[in-house]
Write a structure and sequence with these properties.
The chain folds into two domains: about 60 residues; about 45 residues, no CATH class. Helix content is about 60%, strand content about 0%. It has eight helices and no strands.
């Protein structure tokens, strides 16, 4: 029980915390229904995590999914950001070529490249001196109203 209390006090993940609280409350003789009402979970949720705790201890309550592995290592990511900050002009195709040639990385969507630009505090969007949708006749009509 002490191990469970320590896990609850140090755990920042709300999903793991809810699991641990459900187990703790059951061990303190709350009914499954009471625990479900207090934590806003189903009775099945309470049962599942109680048995997981009894079988595997704290390990049974922890999340199993750790996320996917990134394409770039931390060092490679820092290298790319530094490279972007040193340049005077940025082009998406140039970034794609640099990543493929240097690290063998090709992202599936452009959003990943845009994220790299964003992390380097660079806007990749081109500015225009004149709005291409601006029609002087329509503006004049609108101003007359």
């Amino acid at each position: 029980m002490e191990e469970l209390i320590a896990f609850i006090q140090e755990n920042p993940d709300p999903r793991e915390l809810k699991r641990a609280l459900a187990v703790q409350m059951v061990m303190q003789n709350y009914t499954h229904g009471q625990v479900g009402d207090i934590l806003q979970v189903s009775v099945g949720f309470v049962n599942k995590w109680k048995y997981a705790f009894l079988e595997d201890g704290i390990t049974g309550l922890k999340l199993k999914y750790k996320g996917s592995k990134g394409y770039l290592t931390a060092v490679q990511h820092t290298t790319v950001i530094d490279w972007l900050k040193q340049k005077n002009y940025w082009h998406l195709d140039e970034l794609k070529t640099y990543l493929e040639d240097s690290f063998g990385v090709v992202f599936e969507s452009n959003q990943s490249y845009y994220e790299l630009f964003k992390q380097a505090n660079i806007s990749w969007k081109k500015t225009q001196k004149k709005n291409p949708n601006k029609d002087p006749d329509l503006v004049a009509k609108k101003n007359l109203k």
